[in-house]
Design a protein that fits this description.
With 298 residues, this protein is mostly helical.
Amino acid sequence: MSLAADPAARLARARASLDGLSVGDALGERLMTSPEALARRMAPGGPWKWTDDTAMALSIVDALAARGDIDPDDLAARFAARYHAEPWRGYGGGAHAVLTAIFEGAPWPLAAQTAFGGAGSYGNGGAMRVAPLGAYFADDLPAALAAAARSAAPTHAHPEGVAGAIAIAAAAATAAAIGAGERPRDGAALLAEVIAATPDGETRRRLERAARHPFSTDPLEVAAELGNGAYVSAQDTVPFCVWSAARGLDDYAAAIWDTARAHGDVDTTCAIVGGIVALTAPVPAAWHADREPLPKGI
């Protein structure tokens, strides 16, 4: 892998991240109902169905393949069309409302702004789908951060929802540079890069708290302080995920198991961590085989 800026190299990075995201998502979804498998660190039998996390990431990769960038109008239409085709993928109630409204013709700025009584969503949806975008633009971090904000906009009007997307894009871009040998394999440096890139707010403040925990700390202790996604908010999800990914750069499987141990929104936390760590460590072949196939052409 290299950090070349040509479209083919960028798409290869995005697809590697998508693979890691989708395997983490699908396994995490199974582990939410398989406590014995999680306790024993034994992956349940496949196939593992992926969820809305992967579905929305697929739309981002589709958009990047078609346009080489993110246009919110185009991406909103892609999100809504994919949702309408498979609404059973596990979308949350807010996403159901926003994506249905967009599919039925509402302008996405209006649909996104109506969430949470007009404040806009600060959920973790912008973060859960964005790692492939960060990988795509890893050769140009400012472009990655700007595109991440645009990718969140169709569904997340609240600043924290956007901040979560920016943080995970920064983490994936840095991980891609590590995987390419252009950055040291240093989890603390990755965390520092993410903090520097993340806009001020609660998500950033919790990332700063995450950086104070040595990687020898039990993930359960870190999640107890920072959140495990149980509230499905960016600020409750992203800081622990970035810490867990930074801790697990050398071993995809271990990173997923340790993330899942924290419980909470396991499919999403494992999707986020998987999309980052797949850029620095291989996805186990058996896990890849057990994940439901992605659509052809991706």
